[in-house]
Write a structure and sequence with these properties.
With 232 residues, the protein is of the alpha+beta class. It is built from six helices and seven strands. The strands form three sheets. A three-stranded antiparallel β-sheet has the order 5-6-7. β1 (2-5) and β2 (11-15) form a beta hairpin.
Length: 232
């Protein structure tokens, strides 16, 4: 998703990429969740994106000359786990897909002399106001109007239009996993009543500690066969 503005309507082009935390197995039968720590290191990703863009511009637009500081300045990349489920995805997408550079509720003053809008100061995390002349407000706003035919949102991988069957299969797998987890949780709650099990049975049912890190507990999900050696 292309995003070109800050809350003060300054020109700040950047992209938001939504990446699934897992994928479908090669045989199409299982959903393979990502391991812990699967997010790419931000510093390495920033250098990679900068280099890829520089090479693409040199190949496709050799006539375009950009300031040298563009390729020496540190680029900003933020990689974080946003959440799980449809609601988390919708909360993230709704911020950028259908919004314009500024909404009416952030315009707090309007008269013949100019426009007053409020914005959040990132360093202090406080709301502030800024006063712009009418010409400056229109200049800032119109630079974020995309040219005709430019796609603001593009789909790759599992979300591409040619992978609709795989996406539908992934949704079904995730729903089945969630339903199975809920059923197992209800079953364990119904059977685990204090005082109705022998002491040795109660100890056997306690969560097993991880043999590597010696913390947390092990939960059986499914058995991995040789063909699934690359599973989670």
């Amino acid at each position: 998703m292309l995003h070109t503005w800050t809350q003060q309507l300054l020109y700040h082009p950047h992209v938001h990429c939504l990446v699934t935390g897992g994928g479908i197995s090669d045989d199409g039968r299982y959903w393979l969740p990502s391991r812990n720590g699967y997010l790419v290191p931000e510093a390495a990703l920033a250098d990679l994106v900068r280099g890829k863009l520089k090479a693409a511009l040199a190949r496709r637009r050799p006539d375009l000359v950009l300031p040298a500081v563009t390729w020496s300045k540190r680029w900003v990349v933020d990689s974080t786990a946003w959440g799980q489920g449809d609601d988390a995805v919708l909360r993230y997408l709704a911020r950028y897909v259908f919004r314009v550079a500024i909404t009416n509720n952030r315009i707090v003053g309007l008269d013949a002399a100019g426009v007053t809008l409020r914005h959040k100061h990132r360093a202090s995390n406080r709301w502030r106001t800024i006063r712009l002349s009418g010409d400056e407000f229109m200049r800032r706003f119109l630079q974020h109007v995309l040219p005709k035919g430019l796609h603001k949102v593009r789909y790759y991988g599992l979300w591409h239009s040619t992978r609709r069957e795989d996406a539908a299969r992934a949704r079904l797998m995730l729903q089945q996993c969630a339903a199975q987890a809920d059923a197992e949780a209800r079953s364990s709650e119904a059977t685990a009543r204090p005082g109705d099990q022998p002491a040795d049975r109660a100890l056997a049912d306690e969560p097993r500690v991880c043999p590597c890190c010696k913390v947390g507990h092990l939960t059986h999900i499914r058995r991995l066969y040789p063909k699934q050696a690359s599973g989670p």
